[in-house]
Amino acid sequence: MSSKPTIPKGTRDFSPEEMIKRDYIFDIIKQTFRLYGYQPVETPAMENLPTLLGKYGDEGDKLLFRILNSGDFLSGITDDELKKRESSAISSQICEKGLRYDLTVPFARYVVQHHHEIVFPFRRYQIQPVWRADRPQKGRYREFFQCDVDVIGSDSLLNEYELIRIINDIFRKLRISVLVKINNRKVLAGIAEIAGIADRLTDMTTAIDKIEKTGMKAAVDELLTKGIPEESIDKLQPVLNIRGKTEDTLHELEKVLSSSVSGLEGLSELKVLFGYIGTERLDCDIEFDLTLARGLNYYTGAIIEVQAKDSSIGSLCGGGRYDDLTGIFGLEGVSGVGVSFGADRIYDVLTDLGNMESQKYRGTEVLVLNFGDESLNYGLRLLTNLHELEISAEIYPDSARIRKQLSYADARKIPYVIIAGEDEMKHNSIMVKDMSTGEQKEIGFNDLASFFSG
Amino acid sequence: MSSKPTIPKGTRDFSPEEMIKRDYIFDIIKQTFRLYGYQPVETPAMENLPTLLGKYGDEGDKLLFRILNSGDFLSGITDDELKKRESSAISSQICEKGLRYDLTVPFARYVVQHHHEIVFPFRRYQIQPVWRADRPQKGRYREFFQCDVDVIGSDSLLNEYELIRIINDIFRKLRISVLVKINNRKVLAGIAEIAGIADRLTDMTTAIDKIEKTGMKAAVDELLTKGIPEESIDKLQPVLNIRGKTEDTLHELEKVLSSSVSGLEGLSELKVLFGYIGTERLDCDIEFDLTLARGLNYYTGAIIEVQAKDSSIGSLCGGGRYDDLTGIFGLEGVSGVGVSFGADRIYDVLTDLGNMESQKYRGTEVLVLNFGDESLNYGLRLLTNLHELEISAEIYPDSARIRKQLSYADARKIPYVIIAGEDEMKHNSIMVKDMSTGEQKEIGFNDLASFFSG
Questions:
Q1: Fewest Cβ atoms nearer than 10 Å: which of A5, A252, A323, B240?
Q2: Residues A432-453: what's their mean pLDDT?
């Protein structure tokens, strides 16, 4: 293989410069999670396919990366089955495992599996990559990192409020102005009820989810295409057009939804949550958005989404409450709420905003030049001393020309170079060159600590 | 699906308690790498199969996890091909990608692909999981973490020495006594030459690699089985029996290998390396081991392996020099040397030794009790103050019975509980309960900072 190697479409290498900026983001997120008492867990990259299948809708099932069984993977399939060439049937016979698609389903699986070791309410965070066989495009990758934070085992709305505060703190520390949109699945269910399409909730939410992007007309067209009766749409439209301050909108909706138990329950939850939000001064803007639905089927209460105000890059964080998540794995009655931060999109926004300019890679502080003569041992001893002082330092591995060694220090942006040749060795001294000013200074071998701490 | 969910064989979940101990290991490794001037990179979990295939021998190819192509993966295969049921032929038609098997090959691919952005010599480290479809057993997992550190673009033996120092520092910080074994592939090649089996180097090294585990007799039997002539084995045995201090062994071998250019070159490299090692007092034991071969085919010079002295768990770290690694991707003449630390085995050894007892999960410091009455806002304000003081704190989300809230604090090992009910609110004070002593103390709302920093 002599042609230049490549990596799979939609995946990325991260260079040292990118790593330092990513770590900056992960550190802020992780520290905030821990400040609020969340505990880290990690789960394997692969899950058994039954754990994943059916959790993300038909579309999601198609986007799962499946792992071919080892060995003679065809042995369980008859010739007849093979001959039919039904990709999806065959794939479930030759693949038992898949790569995780998000962190929520593995977390639900974790909670059920380790149920007896967990103290509830369980606050956990998880920062790991996920994989989706999506069509790659700007801001959308096939391997990307999610940073999930969930509380499970409590249905108190204080949890929703806490997540809003975490969102607020993280984006404040990252210096990104954000708008937090909040809705409630029960309110959406109430609206569907009022419009007489309670059984078409998913179709309805999928359509209204698009109002913001494509406008009301496109949403109405989609509803029509899906066979929603015109009279239902007529009832929907004025409701979806309700605009204004959160307080007024909630008040308005209370009248419209007065006959829907579910709708009123959702409104009451929203009032409690916005009540909490009102008690403190937060940095982000927070509003009720009736058209926020998000694709995932498992939300049952609050729905949350965060957008950067100064960027068009889309959602940076989102989530909601799911009453039945562990139910799919046989553990009923455990309610949870959580959000997921998209580290890759946050990276893109921060890069666009220029907020990470100061996050330069701080690598080696000192390069010891290599003269390849008697002084080498002297240089090695020097290096050991630097490391004992916790100063990141390296020796140039070859006794190359000095000019070459200096240009390496330059290219690597190493601030100090130490010259410790035979002359210096005789004087038990070293010459320190400041690479930014070009200044050189001779100091005693034992003055290293004071020089570099000064 | 109502049966209890499971995870794939050979993979693991990590609980908060395990995560904190793993982070302890990763942090020591990472900080040491950085102290020596190594820079982080990351590569995708999946690589294109041509990048991986043929790099780990036939056995390695079988252990690769392959990812099924998305969509109609059977479309490129004819009925005739299907009918033949040749698993390996079909798998390469239906899978384009595989999970990375180690970090060395992806690193070689990275260097070739980003050649023009890299300053050589390039010191990089990489800490990521790898996947192998190996049969799981104690200490061997299908998903495990490698911590690789390599220098590429320099053939100086100072690099080998630097790696020994890194090994020394990391295991000293982890408080694991280790034995570092060093060999050189050129010496092995020299021995094969002397025994007249220069063309059977791989068979020879595979067999002698097992001497330590299964003894000389088993190694000889294996050589015979592989068709190595008895007279060659007769010549090998006395050489492999050479024992003693490194210096003496090297001296002894110099005589035996006097007619092999490669052998003498290897010996000379070992002498230089042990010369560097002799200049400084290191904590670990270091010895030349003629029977150390390690499986990997790509080593061309130094071979390094690290074993814990107080554990039978096997190799904790290993590596060597590879002159041709990027050559397989079309970039010739770039020599590299590196070692890989096995974080999972280090974890197991540290657990056996009890060295991580003090690495307890330090999570929430303070639990604010929830009385669900007027005092809730007071409690929320308190929580905000604690967070502003960077004190990890949470409020119990429900206004459950106090006994239940306290037993939650107990189970979570939260050291302090704050009682801030209506009485305290009236006095603008809070009651702090020390959960280890049971003592309670009333302090002013504004004395939080001094109480918790004191």
A1: A252
A2: 93
Q: Is the pLDDT of residue A454 over 80?
A: no
Chain B residues whose CB is inside 8 A of the A43 CB are 7, 13-14
Confidence grade of residue B29 (pLDDT, cut at 50, 70, 90)? very high
Contact list in B for residue A6 (CB cut-off 8 A) is: 48, 113
Choose the closest CB to B158 out of A109, A124, A397.
A397
- pLDDT above 70 covers what percent of chain B? 98
pLDDT of residue A82: 84
Give B89's pLDDT tier (boundaries 50, 70, 90). Answer: confident
Measure CB to CB from residue A16 to each of B12, B40, B169 and give the nearest one.
Answer: B40
Q: What is the mean pLDDT of residues B23-44?
A: 96
Inter-chain CB proximity A39 and B51 less than 8 Å: no
Tell me how far apart the terminal alpha carbons of chain A are, to the nearest angstrom: 53
**How far apart are the CA of A388 and the nearest CA of chain B, in angstroms?**
9
Contacts of A71 in chain B (CB under 8 A): 62, 87
Q: Which residue in the set B44, B329, B393 is minimally distant from A37, CB to CB?
A: B393
Q: How far is A13 from chain B (nearest CA, A)?
A: 5
Q: Does B137 touch chain A (CB under 8 A)?
A: no
Higher pLDDT: A292 or B373? It is: A292
* pTM exceeds 0.90 for this model: yes
pLDDT on residue A214: 85
| B129 to chain A, closest Cα gap in Å | 9
- B296: confidence class by pLDDT, cuts 50, 70, 90: low
Residue A7 in contact with partner chain B when CB distance is under 8 A = yes
Q: Are B15 and A41 a contacting pair at CB < 8 A?
A: yes
Closest partner residue to A39 among B161, B279, B361, by Cβ?
Answer: B361
Identity of residue A243: R
- What's the 3-state SS for chain B? CCCCCCCCCCCCCECHHHHHHHHHHHHHHHHHHHHCCCEECECCCEEEHHHHCCCCHHHHHHHCCEEECCCCCCCCCCHHHHHHCCHHHHHHHHEEEEECCCCHHHHHHHHHHCHHHCCCCEEEEEEEEEECCCCCECCECCEEEEEEEEEECCCCCHHHHHHHHHHHHHHHHHCCCEEEEEEEHHHHHHHHHHCCCHHHHHHHHHHHCCHHHHHHHHHHHHHHHCCCCHHHHHHHHHHHCCCCCHHHHHHHHHHHCCCCHHHHHHHHHHHHHHHHHHCCCCCCEEEECCCCCCCCCCCCCEEEEEEECCCCCCEEEEEEEECCHHHHHCCCCCCEEEEEEEHHHHHHHHHHHCCCCCCCCCCCCEEECCCCCCHHHHHHHHHHHHHHCCCCEEECCCCCCHHHHHHHHHHCCCCEEEECCHHHHHHCEEEEEECCCCCEEEEEHHHHHHHHHC
Q: Tens digits of per-residue pLDDT, A123-155?
A: 999 999 999 999 988 878 999 999 999 999 999
Edge-to-edge strand list for the sheet holding A315-322: A39-40, A122-131, A143-152, A336-342, A315-322, A302-308, A178-184, A285-288
Chain B segment 98-117 residues within 8 A of A by beta carbon are: 99, 109-110, 112-114, 117
